Amino acid sequence: MPKYFRPITPSQRKLVLPTLLELDPPDKKAPKSLLTSKRRINGRNHSGHITVRHKGGAHKKLFRVIDFKRDKENIPATVAGVDYDPNRSALIALLYYADGEKRYILAPQGIKKGDVVLTSDEPPFKIGCCMRLKFMPYGSVIHNVELVPGRGGQIVRSAGLSAQLLGRSKGYASIRFPSGEVRMINEDCRATFGAVSNSEHNLRVIGKAGRARWMGVRPTVRGVHMNPVDHPHGGGEGRGKGNIPQTPWGQYTKGYRTRSKKKTRKWIVKERR
Questions:
Q1: pLDDT tens sequence across 184-200
Q2: Who has the most CB within 10 Å: 31, 236, 249, 272?
Q3: Phi and psi for 32 in degrees, rounded to 5?
Q4: Cα atoms in the Cβ-side hemisphere of radius 13 Å centred on 173
């Protein structure tokens, strides 16, 4: 259940935060080898020009190096604890491998301190274990799915998400993604069993503008309050002019398809729409 706050202060009147019941920090601090400084570019390019609006001023944080490849095969690892990561919506788990190496992975739902996980093509088929799609049972709930063998997990990595393995044919596996799309992926790609942790993340209500500033989100001005020179919705007397919703650069934003026609659709079995 999400945590609701008694309105002792105005900022707590609508504040709703996840309880993070899965959180069980390790006994020791994170290894320095897994922490790196994070350069803050705040939506600017190499010239310093704004390329993504409404970014800047976030709280300072360290980057946690996450193992998305899970390429240490047949070496068991013990979960030292489940930790918070300010750089992503999911929680992360610290693994102590039998050979002494330490790595962070995305924490699946239900994983806890003391569990043993493994990257292998043999059972067990339990949460946190990583395996090639060709050896997984049909119907498996998975996350952190690779698109190219050996490249590392690229999709189904956000809090609470999971995909499902539907079947295999001619060297490809059919996977249903959280959007509803069914797509074929090379069966030599790896994925991890289970759903991603922190499923209550989408229920949070930040409660005040200041918390958005801590997260690096600057104020957003609606186009209808701008001048015609600044936005297609701008100008007019009183309220809006009845425009079709557009970006400041004239791109339609409600249902207009922007996918490149050069991209192939041969791997998509069922559209998400």
A1: 999 999 999 999 999 99
A2: 31
A3: -65, -25
A4: 29
Radius of gyration for the alpha carbons in the chain, expressed in angstroms and rounded: 22
Residue showing tokens 């002792």: 8
Range with lowest mean pLDDT among 36-40, 133-137, 147-151, 165-169: 36-40
Confidence label for 58 from pLDDT (cuts 50, 70 and 90): very high
Q: What are the two backbone dihedrals, phi and then psi, of residue 5, each rounded to the nearest 5 degrees?
A: -115, 140
Instruction: Determine the Cα–Cα distance for residues 39 and 31; give it in Å rounded to an integer.
Output: 20
Q: And the tokens for 181? A: 């799309």
Distance CA 196, CA 13 (A): 29
User: DSSP 3-state assignment of 103?
Assistant: strand
Of 141, 136, 34, 147, give the one whose Cα is nearest residue 92: 34
Helix (H) or strand (E) holding 104: strand 102-106
Phi, psi of 172 (to 5 degrees): -130, 150
Structure tokens at 70: 């899970």
Contacts for 273 with CB less than 8 Å, ≥ 6 apart: none
Please name the residue ranges forming H helices in the chain.
209-214
Domains delineated in the chain = 19-202 (2.40.50.140), 227-266 (no CATH)
Average pLDDT value for residue range 135-159: 97
pTM of the model: 0.91
